[in-house]
Amino acid sequence: MSIKSSTAALAALIIAAPVAFASTAEAAGCGGASWYALTSKTASGERMNPAKLTAAHKTLRFGTKVKVTNARNGKSVVVRINDRGPFIRGRVLDLSKAAASEIGMIRSGHAKVCYQILAS
User: Fold this and answer.
1) Rounded to whole angstroms, how far apart are CA atoms 83 and 48?
2) Which of 5, 18, 63, 94 is the most exposed place for a label (fewest CB within 10 A)?
3) Residue 73: its pLDDT value, please?
4) Using CA atoms in the order 14, 19, 21, 23, what is the torsion angle rounded to 10 degrees?
């Protein structure tokens, strides 16, 4: 097998392999965030509590601590990932009502945020 064909085979394997979780480097960034205050079960199996500092992210492991900063006012909050979402284009996090309140985005319902992984 030549190097060229083995490289192509490896590339095809990597592309076909599903990615379950984002790495720390991939997970830090900026985008839109919204908030929610349901009391249903989350994807992690725990009951959603709007009074806790939690959030939903598409790929971060459950239990990951993330610092979220509102780009408009500079306010920050540390949340724990316990759910999956958001499922609206351009949004990177869904925050609990308590977390949204901490960074001043309750009234608007959404905000541009930047986030950084603290611990996973």
Assistant:
1) 9
2) 18
3) 96
4) 30
- Using only C-alpha atoms, what is the Rg of the chain? 17
Question: In Å, how far are 41, 64, 87, 96 from 83, measured between CA atoms?
Answer: 9, 11, 12, 10
Angle at 92 between CA 27 and CA 72, to 5 degrees: 105
Is the distance from CB of 22 to CB of 59 less than 8 angstroms? yes
Q: Which two tokens stand for residue 120?
A: 């996973």
Tokens of 95: 């925050």
3-class secondary-structure state, position 102 = helix
